[in-house]
Amino acid sequence: MNPTRILHPPATLGVIGGGQLGRMFLQAAQRMGYTAGVLSETEDGPGAQVAHWSIVSPPDHLPGLRLLADRAEAITVEFENVSAPALRWLARKRLVRPGWRTVWVSQNRLREKTFLESHGLPLAPWRPVRTERELIDALQTLGLPLILKTAASGYDGKGQVRVDRADDLASAWAALRKVECVAEGWVEFACEVSVVVARGADGGAVAYPVGLNRHEQHILDATVMPAPVGPIVTQEAREWALAVADALGTVGVLTVEFFLTANGHLLINEIAPRPHNSGHLTIEAAVSSQFEQQVRALCGLPMGGTDLVMPAAMVNMLGDLWSGGEPNWDAALGSDPGVKLHLYGKRTAVPGRKMGHLTVLDPDPSQALARALAARARLQRR
Ligand code: ATP
Ligand code: MG
Hints:
The protein is of the alpha+beta class. It is built from 13 helices and 18 strands.
């Protein structure tokens, strides 16, 4: 594979993973004139619905990967839980971005934290938990409350337990089936922020403005960009996010989630080697969206502009909004013509499942959020 090769449209691109992130990548690629397909576990998922072609296969299944390598000239991933050996195998045949190493580091919290620490990046206090002895050590070092997280395959707060009493520690770990975990000290953060960066094949990297994130029940609920955190925190967050991408040598999009403490310190919570929910508003609000950057990096093109054309807010639409039946689209879309609706095409609404999002641009970021929240509130039928 010639890594300096530039792919122009209508070259064929492929993405592993057919959820909403895959779908928005495919849409960005198609808009630029590429042929874009997906390797997806389901025939009718968000990605497969819009793809030019799809291969139905688990992400690590060799026959599926072979078909993907036959069809796509360059391949990216929508999530980090693709096995590193599978990516290494693919990379012998095709351009694969981000590379296996970035994915391998960020798919396991132990590796991720060890890596970040070795590069002098600031983290919440943490200890590995792989044995009963390490569990006790974590409690003694971190104190309470602490949060136990499975090292691998967590998302949207799944695979996490907060522990408030020493007596509950053993049962919390048992509830996680005693798999390899990390324990983190509880951070009394003032707020959570994230930075999406994009790094090209030539090492040129760009960062979006900082996003302010609000979570409900450990699931992202809303993002406002730019975050009202002042110029120093803004600069620090963007520099650290760029430093992570550089240290990993990532080619592609990468997101760094931070806690901001009351006294103004940033701590890295976690990284994602891909576009991120907090970057969805860049579709309308930025010169180039995070998904366009993913296409550009994959194809060896220079990175696009990250400036905002206007401040913006995004609110997620979870399956809970469907609890009273189909949402009231008229009420949401009719009363504020600035509301941008994104639906991912998921057939069944389950509480906690991300079904879509709303984006609003407004010169005043807090107004953008208020309008997005108001639109979402109108959607819910009672
Ligand atoms: P996602 O993939 O959706 O970002 P995740 O399952 O990987 O979620 P984390 O990002 O680790 O999980 O945690 C989800 C949320 O839980 C955080 O954004 C934060 O609100 C809360 N949280 C996690 N760890 C801590 C901590 N150490 N102290 C305080 N709150 C925490
Ligand atoms: Mg997170």
